[in-house]
Automatic annotation (TrEMBL):
Name of this chain's protein: ER-bound oxygenase mpaB/mpaB'/Rubber oxygenase catalytic domain-containing protein
Alphabetized Pfam families for the sequence: MPAB_Lcp_cat
UniProt xrefs under InterPro entries: Lcp-like, MPAB/Lcp_cat_dom
Species whose genome carries this gene: Chryseobacterium takakiae
Signal peptide coordinates: none
Coiled-coil segments on the chain, per record: none
Taxonomy, superkingdom: Bacteria
Any one GO MF annotation of this record: oxidoreductase activity
Residues of the ER-bound oxygenase mpaB/mpaB'/Rubber oxygenase catalytic domain: 157-349
Amino acid sequence: METTILQPRYKHSPHFKDFWTKGNGKQLIDFTGAEVSFKDFEKFSPYYYHVDEAGDHVVEDIYFTKSFREASKEVEQYIRNGVSENDDIPESVKNMFLQTQTIPEWLNYDLLKSGAELCMRANLDSLISLRDYCLMGGYDFAYLNKPLIITEALKKGAVKRLSETLDFWVNVTRYNALEVHKKGYEFAIKTRLIHSYARLSIRKHYKNWDIKNCGEPINSWDMMATYIGFSLVFLHSLHKLGNTFSAHEENGLFHLWKYVGYLLGIPEKLLPDNKKQATEFFYMWTSVQPPADKDSVLLAHSLLNESLENPILKYKFQRRNLRYLHISCTWFLLDDEVCKRLEIPEVSNKRVFPVTKKLINRIYNKLVSRDQRIRKGNKGQLKVLGDYLSITNNSNFH
C-alpha cells in the first residue's frame, strides 16, 4: 500500500450530510440499525490505494504476452481444469488460482443456497433493484465512475453494459454456481481479470489519472462499495418494493456476495457479514466521494435511454412506456436529491407503478409458496437474460 494519507474529506459537505441525515443513507441506517462513525476510517482508507496485484500479475503474464483470443482460451483452461502446485505454468497463475480454488473455512453452503434463493424468488424486482437503485445510485459517486468513463463504457452503449452486468449477476446467483469450475466461478474469475486488464490499461494509457483524489483505478475500497451495492443496497431495494425475507435469507445474501468478493480478490476484511456492518463500511467510504458530476449525468441518462435503444421490445410506444416505468422506480428508490443531481427527468404520476407493485408484492408473497416463487423467479430472470444476450450477441447490433 502507498503511504498517501486519506481523510474523510467530504464529511462536512452538504451532499454527504444530506444523504446520511435525510436521504437514502438515513433510510439505510433505519433499515439496518447501523452505528455510523469514522472510528475505523484509518483502518479502511489505505485500501483506496490498494489493488488486486495477484490478478494484475496474471494479466501481465498471460494477456500482455499473446493475442487476446489465445490468452482467453488459456485462462478458460485454468478455470475449467484447475491448477496445481506442480503445473509448468507462470507463478502468477498458480498464486491466483490456488487462492480461488481454496475454499475458505468460513464458507457455508447452506447460506450460499439461501442467498441464491432470495435473488431468484424476487424475480423481476431483483432486476429493477439492480438497475434503478444499485446501478443508477452508484452513478452519484463521481470518482467511482471515472474508470467507466476512461475505458469508454459510454461508447459501448448501455444495452451492452447492462447485458454484461445481468449476465454476471444471474450466473453467480444460481444454485451451486460458485463451486470451483462451475459457471458462476468462471464469471467471477473472468470479471476479476477484466478489472485487472482495465486497471493496467488505465495506468499505461491515461497518465493524468488523479491517484491522490480518485485512488488507484478500480481499487479495493471502491470494489468493496460496488459489492455492498449488490448486497446491502439490493436488499434495501427489495424491502422498499414490498418484499419480505427471513434472517436466514438475509444472511445468505451477504454470505453469497462475501464469497463472490473473495473470488474477485477483494481483501476479506472489506467484505461485510451483515447489513449493519455493510452500512457502517459504506458510510466511511462515501466520505471520500464527491457528488455526481457531468460524467455521472451522462452515465445516468445513457442507462435511462437504454429502454429506447433496446430492440427487445418491438414498438416505440412500448419502449417509451418501459423508460417511464424505470424513471418512476428510480424516483421511488433513490432520494430526491440524488435524482436531481443525476438530472432524472420528472414524470407525471411517478409513484403509481412502484406503489402498486409494492402492494401486489405483499399479496403475492402471502398467496404463493416460496418454492413456486423461486422457480418462477429463476425462469423469469433467465428469460430476460436470454433476451438481452440474443440482442447483444447479434453482430448487427451496435
